[in-house]
Amino acid sequence: MCCNHAKSDLTLIEDVLKEYADIKGSLITILQKAQSIYGYLPADVLNYISDKTGIPAAKVFTGEA
Questions:
Q1: Spatial CA neighbour of 49 closest among 27, 65, 64
Q2: Exposed, middle or buried: residue 10 (CB in 10 Å: 0-12, 13-18, 19+)?
Q3: Sign of torsion over alpha carbons 21, 27, 29, 30
Q4: Looking at residue 40, what is its pLDDT?
Q5: Both ends of the chain: CA-CA distance in Å?
Q6: Would 55 disulfide with which of 20, 25, 41, 65, CB 3.0-4.6 Å?
Q7: CB–CB of 53/17 below 8 Å?
């Protein structure tokens, strides 16, 4: 059986990204808030965070930025 690959509502994370846009080193906080919003960290949300912050996806997925 195949998993459901529904897209996440990316508008839910917009306020968090705006709040931390100019704060260097805020990736972990953004990830924590995203997990609080979605209940987990969906891949499409992680990729969106990467796109919006300019942090490479590999660093976002590992939380190393």
A1: 27
A2: middle
A3: positive
A4: 97
A5: 36
A6: 65
A7: yes
Tally Cβ neighbours within 10 Å of residue 49. Answer: 23
Listed in sequence order, the DSSP H helices in the chain are 14-19, 27-38, 43-53, 57-62
pLDDT exceeds cutoff 60 at 64: yes
Structure tokens at 65: 């930025």
Kindly state the greatest CA–CA separation across the chain.
43
pLDDT in tens, 12-58: 999 999 999 999 999 999 999 999 999 999 999 999 999 999 999 99
User: What was the pLDDT predicted at 3?
Assistant: 55
